[in-house]
Predict the structure of FAD-binding FR-type domain-containing protein.
Amino acid sequence: MVLCVMQAAIYPGNVLSLYMKKPSSFKYKSGMYLFVKCPDVSPFEWHPFSITSAPGDDYLSVHIRTLGDWTTELRNLFGKACEEEVNSKKATLSRLETTVIAEGAEENTK
Ligand SMILES: Cc1cc2nc3c(=O)[nH]c(=O)nc-3n(C[C@H](O)[C@H](O)[C@H](O)COP(=O)(O)OP(=O)(O)OC[C@H]3O[C@@H](n4cnc5c(N)ncnc54)[C@H](O)[C@@H]3O)c2cc1C
């Protein structure tokens, strides 16, 4: 499932938050996690992250702490996009394609 990243933010402590459009068929419960792949970082790697948005929200969010190579690269990618937006004084973030798949999503969407 390819999801569009609507907004990204970098917080102190090297935490990157991603807010993505939630497809209406995508159901989840508190405490579930999803796997994220970002082809611009690696075409093959999937990494698990807890879903931080509430099941009733109309968006999906994850908060990603920078630890190793993949999370560092992802943070740098979005950091660059955020900087470009700030410098060009545009209100919206450049879109970067991010693919996510949710654990147990097939059972929940039937
Ligand atoms: C079910 C589940 C849910 C998760 N939810 C979240 C979440 O909500 N948010 C979140 O931020 N993470 C979460 N994680 C962890 C997250 O998936 C990993 O942090 C991420 O995949 C690491 O990828 P990486 O390639 O950047 O790091 P890797 O290179 O795989 O590094 C991983 C390990 O190596 C250590 N390490 C790597 N480089 C260094 C270094 N230079 N110095 C010291 N230690 C180092 C890290 O401490 C870490 O333990 C979750 C993991 C699981 C299993």
